[in-house]
Amino acid sequence: MEEIVVYVHGKGGSAQEAEHYKALFPDCEVIGFDYHARSPWEAAEEFPGFFAAVRKRCEKLTLVANSIGAFFSFASLNEKLVDASYFISPVVDMEQLICNMMRWAGVSEAELAEKLEIPTTFGETLSWEYLCYVREHPVSWEIPTHILYGEKDDLTSMETIKAFAKKNNAELTVMPGGEHWFHTKEQMQFLDNWIKNRRPCKETENKDGLASPAYSSGNRAGADGLRHQKSC
After folding, report:
1. Based on the domain organization, do 156 and 106 belong to the same domain?
2. Final residue in a domain of this structure, among 109, 138, 167
3. Are residues 22 and 51 in the same domain?
4. Do residues 100 and 207 both lie within one domain?
5. Closest Cα partner for 155 from 124, 183, 117, 133?
6. How far is the CA of 179 from the CAs of 63, 65, 90, 94, 228, in angstroms?
7. pLDDT, one tens digit for every residue, the chain (232 residues)
8. What range does the domain containing 39 cover?
């Protein structure tokens, strides 16, 4: 197999969501990863083995990951296992997100350090172990990457996603009015066009696995709200 696409779902999602992406990658085998990890250290144990087995079956492995699925991928994978990636509403700064949730819950760092775990009214359990782990294991991602971000994402700020994209030389596309969860007809159409317009033509693909010319951060509107790439 020349190229295999692995889809990694977000919290509350499932591997079955990969079905949606088969039409967007018609020449590839598309696999949904039914993982069990609930923390980055569990992902570091589970993800590499799965991806290594898939990588042996293809010349190129492309990752499509959503929300915390993207974060778990950051925490466990590298350029030896993944050649290119598409991230949808990725959680890119887990320390900041945990600190934000602590503020929303009115929990101090000292209190969390003492109690170790504190449930919240918004369905998340704050964990001292989790906070310490993400501080001790900063994210590093050197794989050619496209990021889709909703302007109204309530988990990751615009400043944070822009900083991550700049640091990791990733292309960032912002959907005006978009949310963290892409689910409406309009949002899914935007997502679909975003992927379609970033699939590299064989004759223009460069050594980094991205189409040339490279796209810069931001939106360059076409008829579908995205800048167009020459059809393959």
Report:
1. no
2. 138
3. yes
4. no
5. 124
6. 21, 16, 12, 18, 23
7. 899 999 999 999 999 999 999 999 999 999 999 999 999 999 999 999 999 999 999 999 999 999 999 999 999 999 999 999 999 999 999 999 999 999 999 999 999 999 999 999 999 999 999 999 999 999 889 999 999 999 999 999 999 999 999 999 999 999 999 999 999 999 999 999 999 999 876 544 444 544 433 333 443 333 344 433 332 3
8. 1-91+141-232
